[in-house]
């Protein structure tokens, strides 16, 4: 039955049915606040997060969390479909006697993202995701974070990392996991840090427990740098002057992109690479006051996205020589139509 405007109540037996009784084969991940299983029902797929029971008397907090999530509606935030909050009775042996114990089963049912987490798709080299896809992920993630920071009161995610950026079938990024914190406000900093990746945690939160929106800005900077320069980018940026590092990243991407793009489109994509690298480094400033606000970041990305030099990014203009390169001199024919022969692209650009 519908209990909120956008959220359904779902009973525990149904969740067991769609997850094969929360089997290991259905388990697809584990976050700070629970274990995630893949559920399937009537050709629909869901992500079922079975929440940890950290306290006994947190029913009020759970419903307050639902009220907050009911307000969160953004294409770059994982959508909550439904929830379970059910008291079940189990019999167990205790000191030689059979006793009946109450067990609270809590779970969140979320939209399922076909392409999994960003972590699965990132690579250290430049032969994985193509640049337009990487930029789309950066832009969408920042848009989602701007939405959270723009709430009243602002919402601090506190756990932004590639594992918590999920990608749907269209490669649209969606922030996840952080919203579960609404149900566990009493979780200690040590508990959160034990289940997160320290590299993405801001120094003021890690060492002093200081929480602000700038914690998320630091994390998004680390993620952006990894998207642009690979997992070794952070260590490399510490080994050389700032501008030398930016030039290195831009040069690496230019060498790759020039195989496909030319002219104004190539220059515009390279400018995106440079701007994203600069933003990432600014976000990673140790002094939190020097980090930009998320609104400042999205303004820069919007300007870069609509650069006058762009041709339609969905239509690639290529010379005959470039076509020869990416088809290995038209070596693999995959079909014929009324107007010509179709060949398979052989260049590793993250797509074919």
From TrEMBL:
The keyword ATP-binding applies. The keyword Ribonucleoprotein does not apply. Pfam families: Pkinase (PF00069). It comes from Triticum aestivum. InterPro entries: Kinase-like_dom_sf (IPR011009), Prot_kinase_dom (IPR000719), Protein_kinase_ATP_BS (IPR017441). GO terms for molecular function: ATP binding; protein kinase activity. PANTHER family: C2 CALCIUM/LIPID-BINDING PLANT PHOSPHORIBOSYLTRANSFERASE FAMILY PROTEIN, PROTEIN KINASE DOMAIN-CONTAINING PROTEIN. ATP binds at residue 50. This is Protein kinase domain-containing protein. Keywords: ATP-binding, Nucleotide-binding. Residues 22-310 form the Protein kinase domain.
